[in-house]
Design goal:
It is a single chain. This protein has one domain. The protein has five helices and 15 strands. The strands form four sheets. The protein has a seven-stranded antiparallel beta sheet. Strands 3-8-15 form a three-stranded antiparallel beta sheet, with helices on one face. The chain has a three-stranded mixed beta sheet with strand order 6-5-11. Strand 5 and strand 6 form a beta hairpin. The radius of gyration is 20 Å and the shape is elongated.
Length: 241
C-alpha cells in the first residue's frame, strides 16, 4: 500500500571526538531516516561510499523552494537587561557540515524534492560515526530532528550584565567582545536545528559534524564503511505496509 509512514518521535544523540579516536554518546536509539536523492547519486554511494556533506551557507543558494532557506543556522536574539533590550541577528554552523534526511517515507515529499529515489539510514549513530572518521578536523557531531517555529526569535533575560556590557568607556566605545559573548550565550545549542514553520511538512532530521575550521563549501567524502548502516531502496515511489 502506498502512503506515508508515521515516524516515531526522535531525540538527539551526540557523537564526540576525544584525541584521535571517534567515540559515541548514546542517549536513545534513534529511528531510521530517509535521504531523498537522485538515483544516480544513490547508486554511487552504495558502490563507493561517496557522499556530499553540505555547508550551512549552501541552503541560501538552493534554487528550489523546498531546500532554499536564507536563514539556516540564524535567528533573531532578543536580550533583556535591567534597562536595555538588545536585538541581534546571530547564528551558528559556520564550522559544520550537515546531511539532511527526513523522518517520513513519502512519495509526495520525494516529488517535492524533485528526486527519483531515496535510501534509508537504519543506524544513524553508526552512520554518523563512520562518516566522522573521514572528516579532517572533526570535533563533535549531533543528530536529531528539526524543531519548527513560527518565528525564529529567541528571547533571554540576562539581567544587569547586559547593561554593563553596553556601557561605553571614556572614549565612547563599547566592549564588543563582551557584547558578542552575551549574544553567543543567548543562542540555544539547537539553533542549527531550528526551522521556519513553512518547512514543517518535511519532518527533517539532521546529522551535523562540527569541525575545527570554518566551512565555506560542501565536502565530498568516500566512506564505504557507512554503507553497512544503510538500506538501498527501489527507484521511484516508496511503498509502505
Amino acid at each position: 500500500m502506498k502512503g506515508t509512514r508515521r515516524p516515531p518521535q526522535a531525540q538527539a544523540v551526540q557523537i564526540v571526538c576525544r584525541g584521535a579516536n571517534v567515540m559515541e554518546e548514546r542517549q536513545i536509539t534513534l529511528p531510521s531516516v530517509f535521504r531523498y536523492l537522485s538515483q544516480a547519486y544513490i547508486d554511487e554511494f552504495f558502490s563507493s561510499g561517496r557522499l556530499r556533506l553540505s555547508a550551512f551557507s549552501e541552503f541560501a543558494k538552493h534554487p528550489d523552494e523546498q531546500r532554499h532557506d536564507k536563514d539556516e543556522g540564524w535567528a533573531t536574539v532578543v536580550i533583556h537587561g535591567k534597562q536595555l533590550e538588545v536585538r541581534s541577528r546571530a547564528g551558528k554552523g559556520r564550522d559544520s557540515y550537515v546531511l539532511s534526511a527526513s523522518l517520513k517515507e513519502d512519495p509526495v515529499l520525494m516529488r517535492a524534492f524533485n528526486t527519483d529515489g531515496y535510501f534509508k539510514i537504519n543506524d544513524v549513530v553508526g552512520f554518523g560515526i563512520a562518516v566522522a572518521s573521514r572528516i579532517v578536523g572533526f570535533v563533535e557531531g549531533t543528530a536529531r530532528n528539526c524543531r519548527y517555529v513560527g518565528r525564529k526569535e529567541i528571547t533571554r533575560e540576562m539581567g544587569a550584565e547586559v547593561d554593563q556590557a553596553f556601557e561605553k568607556d571614556e572614549q565612547g566605545k563599547m566592549d564588543i567582545v563582551k557584547v558578542g559573548g552575551l549574544v553567543g550565550r543567548a543562542l540555544p545549542p539547537d539553533v542549527c536545528f531550528l526551522k521556519g514553520g513553512r518547512y514543517a511538512h518535511q519532518q527533517e532530521f539532521r546529522i551535523i559534524w562540527r569541525v575545527s575550521h570554518e566551512v565555506h563549501e560542501p565536502l565530498f567524502v568516500e566512506c564505504p564503511e557507512a554503507v553497512q548502516f544503510c538500506e538501498r531502496t527501489t527507484r521511484g515511489e516508496p511503498t509502505c505496509s
